[in-house]
Amino acid sequence: MNNHLNEQVERIIDEGTGRRRSVIVRMASPEDELTALSSTTSDAIQKRNLAVSARDVLPLPLDKIRRPESGERTAYEKRVLRAEEHSVTAQVAVMEGKSVSSYSLKRSGLKVLKPLITSDLVQKSKAEVKVDKSEADPLWISNSLALDMSKGDLAKLPSEVPQIEAIYPNRRFSLPPVVVPKDLPKYIEEYKSSAWGVMRVGALACWGAYGARGSGVNVGLLDTGVDASHPDLNGKVVSWAEFDSDGRLVVDSQPHDSDEHGTHCAGIIAGGNTSGQWIGVAPEATISAALVINGRRGGTDAQVLAGIQWAAEQGVDVINMSLGGVWFDPEVRDDYMNSFISCLRLGIPVVVAIGNSGHQTTGTPGNDFFAFSVGATDYEDRIAGFSGGRTHIIRESNVLPKDSLPLVYSKPDVSAPGVAIKSCTPRGQWKPFNGTSMAAPHVSGAIALLLSATSIRRDVERNQRAFLVQDFMISSVKEMGESGQDHRYGFGRIDVLRAIDFAQDLGY
User: Which residues sit opposite 249 in a β-bridge?
Assistant: First the structure.
C-alpha cells in the first residue's frame, strides 16, 4: 500500500465518529486514452488561462477542426492546430482520439471496479448494511464505489485490493446559501419583457436574430429537485431521479423540490413567461432533473457523483450544478476530476457555481480544474461581493500526469448575472434570489442556445464538443476586470449572442 493511500485511510478513521465510515473508493484506470486526454487538456487549459484577452481563445473554423475524410490529418494540419495554443479544442483535435459512448465508458468502468466489488471485505460490508437498504450502483463514471465500512475493514481494504487509487470520505455539504433581496433597484423593476439577466446575457437577441430558444437541447439539473408542475416549467422536465446520501436511486420517487433552489435554477434555464416576464434563457430546452441535495439535510459526494452518472446516461447536452461545499484552502483534491473528464469525453460540459463565500474562497466541486465554473455579476456588471474566486494548486493527483504537477490555476472561468434574479419557485410562485447558484444556470441556458443555433452537435466529434462549447463561451465574453482571467470575473461576463455570431461566422 502506498504511503499516500495509507495516510488517506488513517485520516478518515481518525477524523470520523462511530464504528463505521462512509467512503468513496476509486480504482486506478489502465485506459491509455484517459491518460492522454488528461495530459493534453491540462496543458491546453493552462495555456488558455494565460491568454491576456478572451478573444485569443476563439476556436478555429469548423473545416480546420473537423477530421478529414481520409481519417488522418497531415503533418501541416497538425501544426496549424498546435499553433492555436489558447484553444483547448484545437489541442484535443490533434490527439485524434476515439469518441466514446456512455455505454462503452460504463463497460470499461465496471471492468475496473470488478476486483473491488467482488472483494471479500466489500461483500462483508454489504452484508452488514441494513437489509432495507438496496445496493448503490457502481460509480463507473469515476471508477468509484460508495461504501459503508467498519473502521477495521477499511484499514484492511487497500492491502486486499491493491488496484485502489484513492479513498475519500463521503463528505456532507449543505444547500448553498441564497438571499432574497429586500428591495429591487428601479432599474430592474423597469424590465417588463424579461428578467434582467435573460436580456443581459443576450438571450432575447438570440431568439430574434437566430430563432434560437434551445429547442432539442436537454440540460441536466443536479439540485434540490424541481416542481415540474410549475406553470413556467410545464412539460419541460422530461427525466427525473432522486438519490439518497449513499448514492442509491430512490425507487418510485416523483418530481418534487425539497426546497426552492432547484425550481429557481430550472426556471432560469428554461422557464416560460406565465408571470408576464420571460425568466428562462432557453425556454424551449428540456430538463433532466435529479435530486442530489436535500433542502433540509444537505447532500453528499456520493449523491452528486450518482447524479452526474445518471445525467450522462440520459444523454444530456450540458450539466448544471449550483451546489457545493465551501473551500478555503488553495490546494484542492481530485475527488470529482474523473467524473468531469468522463463527461467531457462524452461531449458534456459541466457548469458549476463557484460559491457564495466571497473573494479568496471557492466551492467544491466548482473549483475542480475541469469544472466550467461561474461567478456572479449584478445589473451594473459589477462582480457580486459574495462571489467566490481564487488561485488554486494541485500538488498530488492520481489523474493528472506527474510532469504537470504542481498545477496552478485560477477560478472562476466566466461570470453571469446572479443578483436579484427573478425565477419560479414551488407552488406557482416567483421570487428574486442572489447567488452564484443563479449565475450558473444562465451559462447552462446560454450553452443550450448556442447548441440550438449551430451545427456543433451534428458536425463536431463528441470528444471535442464540450471543449469547443467552453472555448466559444469564454472567447465571446464581455471582458471585464483584469486582462485575461482573474479571480472575480473569470474571463468576463458571458454574451451568448456574440458566441453564436462567432460560431456561425466560423462555419458551425
Answer: 243
